[in-house]
Design goal:
Blueprint (H helix, E strand, L loop, with lengths): L1 H37 L3 H21 L7 H22 L2 H27 L4 H13 L3
């Protein structure tokens, strides 16, 4: 019995370490991609890293209620997306904001298209919501 507990504890530790590594890799990948898109300065890149770390942390925390409380999960996902967008927007310079606005227009167009196609295809509200969340959380 004691041996099973030790093995289980070790497994959870390895799983947690693996998740943390994946989390940091995702933060770095997203930051690099956004730095290229917006042509960020080193100071802005450091700030973007913090924004992406917070985003990943929030996504990890909300994952626990994904199946137990889908309505709250969806609201929290919208909040995460909105908060991330606003944090990015606040740090950008005037010329960078032009790129930001273009990306937001593209996202709105993409979401309208997805909503229209999925509604015509008879998709459920939950399926549509999931597809729209993917667009909201996408980098570009």
């Amino acid at each position: 019995m004691k041996k099973t507990g030790i093995i289980l504890g070790f497994f959870l530790l390895v799983l947690n370490f693996s998740f943390a590594q994946n989390h940091e890799v995702r933060v770095q990948q997203d930051t690099e991609k956004l730095a290229a898109i917006y042509n960020l300065t080193p100071q802005q890149k450091a700030e973007m890293t913090k924004i992406q770390q917070l985003k990943q942390q929030n996504l990890q925390e909300v994952e626990a209620i994904k199946t137990s409380d889908p309505e709250t999960f969806n609201e929290k996902m919208k909040s995460i997306s909105y908060g991330t967008d606003m944090a990015i927007r606040r740090m950008l310079e005037k010329d960078q904001l032009k790129v930001y606005r273009e990306i937001q227009i593209n996202k709105r167009t993409q979401k309208a298209s997805i909503m229209s196609e999925m509604t015509k295809g008879g998709a459920s509200k939950a399926e549509i919501q999931k597809a729209l969340q993917a667009v909201d959380l996408s980098i570009e």
